[in-house]
Amino acid sequence: MLLSRGAVVVGIGLSEIDWDCSHTQDRFGYISGDLRDDMMVDKIFEHFREKFGRIDLIVNNAGISQIERASDFTSDTLKDIFAVNVISVGMVASKGAKLMRDTGTGGSIINVTSVMADSAMMGLSAYSSSKAALDQMTRASGQRVGAF
Predict the structure, then answer these.
(1) How far apart are CA 90 and CA 84, in angstroms?
(2) What's the pLDDT at 42?
(3) Catalytic one of 48, 52, 82, 127
């Protein structure tokens, strides 16, 4: 629907896509990459800046979870969950907002979170905490970024 209305749509994921999108190459792009890598995020946005000149909409839907008792967490588990669910989403939103501002086209950034941000469920405290952090980051960023 967005493509049919002339929007430039960008997809980023860990795996390659297996469907033909050649008929929309002038307005659709997809790159496989790990958003936890800052250099990858920079490379992705530079590629889309060069290819399309703008981005109209970002839907940040990155997220991972792990069912684990709080007493069994490791620092690696927490770092990984927060790296994907908060930091990578924040970096994509930041780079996207910069591109939207620099091109003067504006746009929208949607950060997908979870009802678990406001709930507690045994085994999902790390996930819930990361989504709560994303909620707050989205609210705070929206106050500043929404101005342009």
Answers:
(1) 9
(2) 93
(3) 127
Q: 114-127, pLDDT tens digit by residue?
A: 888 888 888 888 99
Does the annotation count 127 as an active-site position? yes
Q: What pLDDT, on the 0 to 100 scale, is given for residue 136?
A: 94
Region for residue 55 given its phi and psi (left: phi exceeds 0; alpha: psi -120 to 50; beta: otherwise):
beta
What is the distance between the alpha carbons of residues 133 and 64, in angstroms, rounded to a whole number? 14
Checking DSSP bridges between strand 108-111 and strand 57-60, what pairing results, if any? parallel
Kindly calculate the radius of gyration of the chain based on its CA atoms and give it in whole angstroms. 16
In contact, 48 and 99? CB cutoff 8 Å: yes
DSSP notation for 29-86: EEEE--TT-HHHHHHHHHHHHHHHS---EEEE---------GGG--HHHHHHHHIIII
pLDDT along the chain (148 residues), means of 10: 75 75 70 88 89 84 86 90 95 91 87 86 89 93 70
Q: How many helices (H) and strands (E) does the chain have?
A: 4, 4
